[in-house]
Structures are given as structure tokens and as C-alpha cells.
Amino acid sequence: MTRILVTGGAGFIGSVLAEKLITNPDNYVVIVDDLSTGNVEKLPHHLPKDNWRFVKADVNEYRDIAEIMLGKKFDYVFHFAAYAAEGLSPFIRTYNYDNNLRATAGIVNECIKNNVKRLVFTSTLAVYGHGDGGIFDENQILKPIDPYGVAKMGCEMDIQIAGEQHGLDWCIIRPHNVYGVKQNIWDKYRNVLGIWMFQYLNGEKLTIFGDGLQTRAFSYIDDSLEPLWNSATNELASKQIINLGGTKEVSIKHACNTLIKIMGGGEISFEEERHEVKHSIPTWEKSVEILGFEHKTDLEEGLTKMWEWAKQQPMRERFVWPSYELEKGIYSYWKNKK
After folding, report:
1. How far apart are CA 251 and CA 231, in angstroms?
2. Is the pLDDT assigned to residue 164 strictly greater than 80?
3. Per-position b or e across 84-100, b if 16+ CB within 10 A of its CB
4. 3-state SS class at 114
5. Which of 101, 105, 85 is nearest to 146 (CA)?
6. DSSP character for 73?
7. Residue-averaged pLDDT of the chain
8. Is residue 148 annotated as part of the catalytic site, yes or no?
9. Residue ranges of the alpha helices (H) in the chain?
């Protein structure tokens, strides 16, 4: 039986992948999450408990992750646990580095000690910064423009050093703008498509920072599941860094208008411009060649599925930071604590 550890398994990507892995009776999956931003409702309670279990633990606590992994002989570790809010990261610097860089160092240590076959680490396009004319290629020099990108870049470098010095096998995935059913729509600072859905459901205007002409490549979660599994098991993915996600360039304004059409209403409110990358379009050839990625779900289809799910969700309290580490320069919209 293949033994798999998924950190952040009650979050978005982690929970969806974990459920897919559990449906294979040849896998045994241990899901770890501290439930700080994840949700127990995302766990696969509808599936038999024969080949999975949930452990509530904080990967920032080194003793916890060491205890979970000691002697368990995991074949693969998928490390998804992170607070991915690059726009907010300049205002929560110490939390950002603890939650990303420090936590990943502990995972790396335990993967080495326990002879894990491969660590799959989900990084981010934020490591590129502005990239090369808005195009992000895996071989480019990294120049992140926010602490979140810096933290993820540090994690990537540490993992590669562990590979060179200790023989750790790894695959670094840089997903981008992933969305879909089970995404957290109750966080004020991240997941723009979910933010808009929450705003519309609560009678608020749909906020866009700047003119909305920023471009992104959105990725429906289902299209990335098989490639994520291949990142752990395909020999060609060994010690590779791979962009993973949608291949079509879309402006933020166009994405918002598409969602308005699907929801049957909504009004855009253009807010002050923020410190962010204007154009973020990754290359995708490597994900196709090595991981078998296919962009099957266009934005309108994916948003329709996500919206149908979102409408059925209970009204949860929105996550808002009670205080920021740094107030200077924070955007006026985020000053409003609601």
C-alpha cells in the first residue's frame, strides 16, 4: 500500500487532492491540518475510514510533524500547508515567514530522516515577481516583489539544497490562480473569485484593485489533480520545477464580468491600486510534457460550477485579521475590519 501525507489537507487544493487519492484503495492517506483556515467539512467524511485518517496538528510546531512522520514510512509527502496571501504578506511579515519558510524547513527535515521517496512542494508564481515581460518561465531568475514570494523562494532553495546534500527527491510545483468547489470564499485577502462571490452573496460591491487590466491565467482545480499525482510518481518529475495551471490569459476585469453574468448581477467597485504584478502569465509546456496537464475547463464553465456550490454554503463569519503587524501603507479597503 502506498502511504501518503498531505499537509494543509483541510484547505482547498489539499482537501480536493486528498479525496481523489483516498478513492484509490491502494493508497493510505494521512491528512494534517491545524484548521486555522481549513475546515473539517472539507474532509472526506463520506468515504470509508479504512485508508485515511485526519490529524489536527500545526506544521509550524516541529515536534508535531516529527511525531506524525516518525516510523510511518510515507512514500510521498504533499506539502500544501501555507497562508497564501501575497498582497497581505508585507503587513504580516513574521507570520508569513513562520507559516511558510520555518514550517517547510521542518517538513524537509522529517522527509530526509524518514526516507520519503519524494516531497512535492507547492510554491507560487509570486517567486517570479514581474517576470520577463509578464511571461514566467521556470528557468528565469527569481525576483519576488513581496514577502510571500520571498518565503516561497527560500523554501524552494532549501529543498534543492536538501536534494544535493541529503539525497532528498523532490518536485516543486508552481500553481497559479487555482479556483473551484471547496475554495475558501470567506477570506478577505485572497482568492479573488471567491471574494467576489462572498461580496455578491452579502450585498456588497465586487472590488477590483486598480483598473482591472491585470492579467492572470486561472486554473480549475480538477484539471490539476492528475498532474499533481504525477508530480510525485513520474520519474521525469524528479527534481523538477514546474508551472502548473491554466494556459489562457484573462484580465481581472473580464473575469469579474464573466462572474457577474453567471451570478445574474453584481456591481464593480474599483479600489486603489496595490503593489502587485500587472501581468502574470506562466509558461505551461513543461506541465504538459512531464505531468500530462490539460486545460479542460474554461473560465465560464469553472465559475459556473463554483458558483452553484457557493450558493449552497452556510453563511460563515468572514476571516479578517484583528490587527496587522504593520499598518503603514496598508490599503484603505483592508483598514475596514469587517
Report:
1. 29
2. yes
3. bbbbbbbbbbebbbebb
4. coil
5. 85
6. -
7. 94
8. yes
9. 12-22, 62-69, 93-97, 103-113, 147-166, 192-201, 225-233, 252-263, 285-291, 299-311, 332-335
Residues 6+ apart with CB under 8 A from 155: 100, 101, 104, 105, 121, 123
Which DSSP string do the residues of 242-271 spell out, in sequence order? EEES----EEHHHHHHHHHHHHT---EEEE
Say what the pLDDT of residue 281 is. Answer: 87
| Angle at CA of residue 122, ends 211 and 195, nearest 5° | 35
Cell of 326: 504593520
Catalytic residue among 28, 83, 148, 200: 148
Nearest to 209 by CA among 187, 192, 186: 192
Alpha-carbon gap, residue 165 to 5, rounded angstroms? 23
Burial 199-221 (b: 16+ CB within 10 A, else e): bbeeeeebbbbeeeebbbbbbbb
Say which DSSP state 319 is in: B
Phi, psi of 215 (to 5 degrees): -115, 145
pLDDT of residue 317: 85
Share above pLDDT 90 across residues of the chain, in percent, rounded to a whole number: 86
In the numeric block, the cell 500530462 is attached to: 292
